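Box 4.2: Ligand-aware structure prediction
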Amino acid sequence: MGALDSLSGLVFKNGDLAPHLSLGLGGKADYLALPRTREELGRVISAAASDGQPIRVLGSGRHVIVSKDSVRGVVLALGGAEFTRVSVVGDRVVAGAGAHLSAVVEAAGRAGLSGLEHLVGEPGTVAGALRLRVPEGEGGLVEHVDRIRAVSASGRVEELDAAMLHQGENRHDPFPSAIIVEVEFRLEATGQEPVVQRLKRCWIERRIREPLRANTIGPIFRGHDAADLLRKSDVARKSEGCAEVSDRNPNFIVVRSPAHPADIINLIEAMRQRVRERFHIDVERQISIW
Ligand SMILES: Cc1cc2nc3c(=O)[nH]c(=O)nc-3n(C[C@H](O)[C@H](O)[C@H](O)COP(=O)(O)OP(=O)(O)OC[C@H]3O[C@@H](n4cnc5c(N)ncnc54)[C@H](O)[C@@H]3O)c2cc1C
């Protein structure tokens, strides 16, 4: 029996991933780990190291497609109370990695702290959005990140150098293998009223700009110009099985029941192929396929 097998009630062999993926389309993980505390998380990491098993982390699974019946190694989901807590300390919002962005935006708004209003309505968790650098470009979430805490391979909580987020290109991810547990945002204390006004404005802008339906995934490809390239490549309404390119933004895919992950993956390839044929450019996939 391996070290992971001995963590019963914490690690589930052949764990079902579907409840942890936003579209519910998923197979199983060799080991699904649901730690409730940092101490439990440390135990999972040590056990995975001792068994030689790789680790992947899921946020709310909005930007991950599971293509295989079984994902090798350990999949971590940080949904426990210790990983979803959001608190305000002075001009800072301290959020667990698994906290939903909506909870962070709400806490900042209530405390009259400004800086995250443009994230209103953005789905996903704090760590998922940070890893994806949501939204792209100026005014992004990363600009307000002051501290990041992650668990090291030895299971200890360590602080990452948040300044590295601001180096290099915006698309650069300086911590590709970090398991993030907490993020601290430093915001501007402006009082509640101006924050509420900005939240209303950002919400309206978002509704006009993006397809926000629950069965929509994206952006599929990285970069400001991806949607434009796709539009000019006439991918609108292209479909594979139960997956169809969104008519509101061609960098998003609308998924209908009973979709299979292969529908989405085939459509992504067809979209990429269209852009390649039209512009001789290889668009870079942003959505993760496990
Ligand atoms: C530029 C941009 C604009 C977007 N705009 C919209 C929009 O308008 N509408 C919309 O519906 N969606 C939008 N999205 C998508 C949405 O923001 C993401 O799907 C969401 O933020 C992903 O969060 P998640 O918690 O579901 O992460 P997941 O999909 O679960 O994970 C995303 C990545 O983060 C990693 N990760 C997750 N948690 C951790 C952790 N604790 N430590 C380390 N790594 C971790 C995962 O391994 C994975 O690589 C946008 C995304 C981007 C990049």
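In the box above, the bound molecule is flavin-adenine dinucleotide. Residues 210 and 249 are 7 Å apart (CA to CA).
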